[in-house]
Amino acid sequence: MARIFLTTLSLLLLLLAPSVAGQAYTPVSSYESQVPFLGRHEDSNTKLTGVSPEERKKFDDRTRYTIPQNAYHSPNKLIEGYYDKTCPDAEKMVATGFRQIVRLNPGAIGHIIRLQFHDCFVNGCDGSILLDFTPSGDMVEKSSMFNGLLLKGSDIIDDIKTRLEKKCPGIVSCADVLAFTTNEAMTMAGLPARRPLGGRRDSIVSLASIVEADNLPMSDWNIDQMMELFGRKGFNIEEMVVMIGAHSVGIAHCDFFMQRALNFNGTGIPDPTLGVEAIEEIRKACPDAGTALFRNPPVNFDATPTVLDNLFFKDMVEKRRSLLITDSHLLEDPRTRPIVEQMAGDPTLFPRRFAEVMIKLTSLNVLTGTEGEVRKICRSTN
């Protein structure tokens, strides 16, 4: 079975940014033509509604003993306004450049959020996912079966980095460019604007073997497997559910889920956890089971694919509607269902928590100070 990232963050957005009169996006990077998860730090100990003390202890113990020292979240190492003196326009340049890109490439927001997750969950938020080559000559993260052609957005970071290099050569790291761009992507998806944290440095190491050592989830994992991975990275159950809620935006292709409505697990009948309307919707959207993956029609995760809202969770609770089997586990498992119901019942909760959890994600195991380097080109080390 091909191992792929949980499509939980496979976000191919259809978001249209507000157009700016008289402005048009012109790529400035020579690389553009090449083939190419947050919250309050203390929340890892939060007791969650609907989670038994026994389950909570098991999860906390797993988290406590599998996270290496100094390989955790370090938001205290990152600060707002990091480039205010060395490159005062850095944040504005990232935001402006990304908005121009989104005008002509509406899927860019989804690509960037997913790219950020793939970078941070493997070896920390160090820009290692962006490398095409390293001094060791080993296969890089980008070449892993989890990534490859399924993972997009590196060219966007190349473009923005090229703009920054012209203005402030050797100052802004690729890891920060990715984090700042992700911050802008969330703003464009409807979350309140906030200044990004800066100070990350770039790794000179990128290994496909680390990606495939159970550092990104498979598309058919159960809740226990998901909990183990997210716990190992320092995220509790609630934060895991919130991060999977990135499916509030974007689409999934039929090949990833259509058998749930056509022939679930070879039974010849639909997945019994799906609602009747959801089954009919999938059957109409995915009429040709033999269509090649890359040509499959897309289906929105919810009816507001351009907004980070709670409709993804409301559809689960009220309509028993979910596309991916991994998403359906959230509603079926008693440890996660109460959290899904909380998100579905409060339209302000998910947008707030998603922004917070993303701060935690983008602070995961960062390089700072004299660690790593500041790459001149994001695809290769200096």
Automatic annotation (TrEMBL):
Segments forming domain Plant heme peroxidase family profile: 77-382
Positions annotated to bind Ca(2+) 1: 119, 122, 124, 126, 128, 141
Protein name: Peroxidase
Cofactor or coenzyme needed: heme b; Ca(2+)
Subcellular location: Secreted
Catalytic function, reaction form: 2 a phenolic donor + H2O2 = 2 a phenolic radical donor + 2 H2O
Cofactor stoichiometry and binding remark: Binds 1 heme b (iron(II)-protoporphyrin IX) group per subunit. Binds 2 calcium ions per subunit.
Taxonomic source organism: Vigna unguiculata
GO terms of biological process kind: hydrogen peroxide catabolic process; response to oxidative stress
Annotated site location: Transition state stabilizer: 114
GO molecular function, one term: lactoperoxidase activity
Pfam families per the UniProt record, alphabetical: peroxidase (PF00141)
GO cellular component: extracellular region
EC numbers for this chain: 1.11.1.7
Keywords assigned: Calcium, Disulfide bond, Heme, Hydrogen peroxide, Iron, Metal-binding, Oxidoreductase, Peroxidase, Secreted, Signal
Binding site residues for heme b: 247
Binding-site residues, substrate: 217
Stated family: Belongs to the peroxidase family. Classical plant (class III) peroxidase subfamily. Belongs to the peroxidase family. Ascorbate peroxidase subfamily.
Alphabetized Gene3D superfamilies for the sequence: 1.10.520.10, Peroxidase, domain 2 (1.10.420.10)
Signal peptide from the UniProt entry: 1-22
Catalytic residues as annotated in Swiss-Prot or TrEMBL: 118
Annotated S-S bridges: 87-168, 120-125, 174-378, 254-286
Keyword Secreted applies: yes
Matching InterPro entries: Haem_peroxidase (IPR002016), Haem_peroxidase_sf (IPR010255), Peroxidase_pln (IPR000823), Peroxidases_heam-ligand_BS (IPR019793), Secretory_peroxidase (IPR033905)
Role this protein plays: Removal of H(2)O(2), oxidation of toxic reductants, biosynthesis and degradation of lignin, suberization, auxin catabolism, response to environmental stresses such as wounding, pathogen attack and oxidative stress. These functions might be dependent on each isozyme/isoform in each plant tissue.
